[in-house]
Predict the structure.
Amino acid sequence: MNRIAVPRFQRPGLRAGVLGLSGGLVIAAAFLIAANVSDHLATTATNEAVRTTAAVVHGYVDPMVMAGSLETPDAAHAALINGELAQLVSSHQILRIKIWSPNGTILYSDLPALVGQTFPVDDELAEALDGEVATEYSSGDQPENVYERGLATHFLSIYLPIEVGGHVAGAYEIYEDAAPIEAQIAATRQDVLLIVGAMAMGLLALLFGAFSGASHLLARQTRRLRRNAERFRSLVQNSADVNMVVRPDWTIAYESPAVERVLGYPAAGHVRRSALEMLHPDDRPWAEQLLAEIVRIPGAQITGELRARHADGSWRLIELVLKNLLNDPAVAGVVVNYRDITVRRELEDELKRQAFHDSLTGLANRALFADRLEHAIARSRRLRGPLAVLFVDLDDFKTVNDSLGHTEGDQLLVGVAHRLQSVLRAGDTIARMGGDEFAVLVEDPSDAEAPNEVAGRLLGSLEAPFMLGSKEVFVHASVGIAASGPSILSGEELLRNADVAMYTAKNNGKNRVEDFRPSMHEAALARLALKGDLERAMERGEFRLLYQPIIHLESSRLIGVEALIRWDRGDRLVGPDEFIPVAEETGLILPLGKWVLEEACRQLHAWDTTSTRRLKMSVNVSGRQLQQAGFVAEVAGALASTGVRPDRLTLELTETVLMQDAEAATATLADLKWLGVRLAIDDFGTGYSSLSYLRRFPIDELKIDRSFIASMADGPEQAAVVLSILRLGETLHLETVAEGIELEGQMTALVGLGADLGQGFFFSAALTPTAITGILDEVTWQAGELAREPADAQSEAVRVA
Ligand code: C2E
Ligand code: CA
Ligand code: CA
């Protein structure tokens, strides 16, 4: 039992009464008188104590109550009270103080462990909470009063109501040491016993005792009853609900005062008038019906909702419970209990809205879209009307989002949602399915072209740039369309088909629309099969590395190689473009990338043992690898296990990969740099971001994308792009490698522009390790030779030729 602080008191008067009935009459009477006298003494002493302690406590606590800070006494007040209490406690005037809230929670106690605990409200506390001062007297002999027993042998406990503005807000409870009264009581009891014993006035005493006891009990009982009645009345009056008794025609017979609070009318102002007057005209027939129904069945109960007019003119939503008590003579009417649920309903509606809408854009969410789609399909089954689902996915939004930051990314999404919605008919549903994906439900397209028209409008709406602050941002999207034809599909199938079509639109170059065709589904299935095959390929060791030579252009010397992965499927070598995206999706890229690193380092070491030529090794790294926590350790491990010096390894990263999570990338790159490996930006010039990151990331090398090399011959402008990248490299002290050199003319032009290094089919496609071993010790590169005449049947050149 955690009830520590409230000792179980026994009222002397009552205890005497009980003894009197079971023991000798004379002694009983004597005790009774003694008890009454001591009761009186205790009361006098208590009154005195109440006055002094109340004065002290009121002095400190009342300002807090007035300031409304009783619930959370601030530090200053608490310190003040604590100081005063410490004094009182040391002077032994007060042993303990508590402040109770009306529900039995201790708001304040000088014993901090009690604060915040809630106990059942006992009789004396209830009296105080009813506005009366209650006192008790106890030896604190309960086990839970261990602490009090250490303070004194007997206690006087005083409960004082705390009143604020006429209402009882709580109660103080104060313990005083009762020893002085105790002594007085004992003395009186002895005196009285002597006198009574000498007089031997048994009968008189018995009569007196009986009357006194009975009247005492009666008074107590009456007080309790009165209190209960008052409590009930106050419950009805202060209840948030209005209680009303109506006749079978809605005439009001009684109305509780709460009507003033709920509907703003003066209490009882409507008695003998019809309650229907207060109701919304549209709800009146229903209300009449409701009452007519219930009147027929005695004791029946019905719940309903109606709109009632508030005195301020507004309509409030009322929830009411009607109970037929016409047969109950005490009521003889229908009891109507009602409350205002307007705010609650608004809250419910808001929650419902939140559950079915995307909080960022305010569009429908996936759940609502699915619901609308199912309804639309049911309707289309009935009416044989067509319907279509459009799946919209923003192009490269992740890159845009990462470079903008999430707040502006969100802002952009809101803008996009707004534009998409603005070009739809009112009847069409648009939803945000998550991230940068949207879906549109087009019901009853007017003709077969309609969904495509809608898609065109959607893409058109995104054409103009978005303004984010002073920045112009361009956003495009890919759209897939799935229409339900004669064979009506489920909502799930429609959505999946639209998704597959969208995916095809992405693969076909983005910023475009594709209609779903079953063959697309096959392609999607093939991808799925590929996932399984890839996993097995990893287990079976079907991956190979080929190495494309990197040449010093002016001297034609082989200076390094780039490791390029192939999947050996037995009948053919599959290129990375076919499986790297899927491996990234499934996460297989992590073990695969680790294998590439280890294998490339192992191969480099093997060449070191057969030749004096020290090649450099370039390895491609995907975004997921870079983001992986243990990546730096993985690189270090590959180097350590093969003994390859870190500066002979170059990791190639694309701009997109670097920008995916620039913050994290910066940290990882710094670690890699610390390790001593070289870092290159692959496909340089094709990425989204600006040049600022070139300074931000510790880059050693730029690989000029082959598209620039290919278009160099188109005109001076195109050549100027290559030149400017070369100059940029010079300025920032970065090595440059021209990729995709296919023609001699490109090579000479590059040399003319001052390019240093290059790779491409003009020199060689990717070769097997053996083929590289064969040319390692050649002094200069025989330009073009290998491209025309592959040294090895498995070389890349076979495939390319
Ligand atoms: P990349 O890093 O730009 O690699 C160069 C690609 O260009 C190679 O394609 C190469 O065969 C091809 N190429 C080389 N010279 C010429 C040329 O003169 N003309 C043309 N048209 N193409 C040329 P590949 O091997 O199919 O690799 C494609 C992409 O796959 C690579 O582009 C790289 O991003 C990725 N990749 C290759 N191996 C790996 C790897 O081990 N890990 C990861 N994560 N990605 C890899
Ligand atoms: Ca590369
Ligand atoms: Ca490249």
Remarks:
- The pocket of calcium ion (ligand 2) is lined by residues 562, 620, 652, 682 (CB under 6 Å).
- The first strand starts at residue 96 and ends at 100.
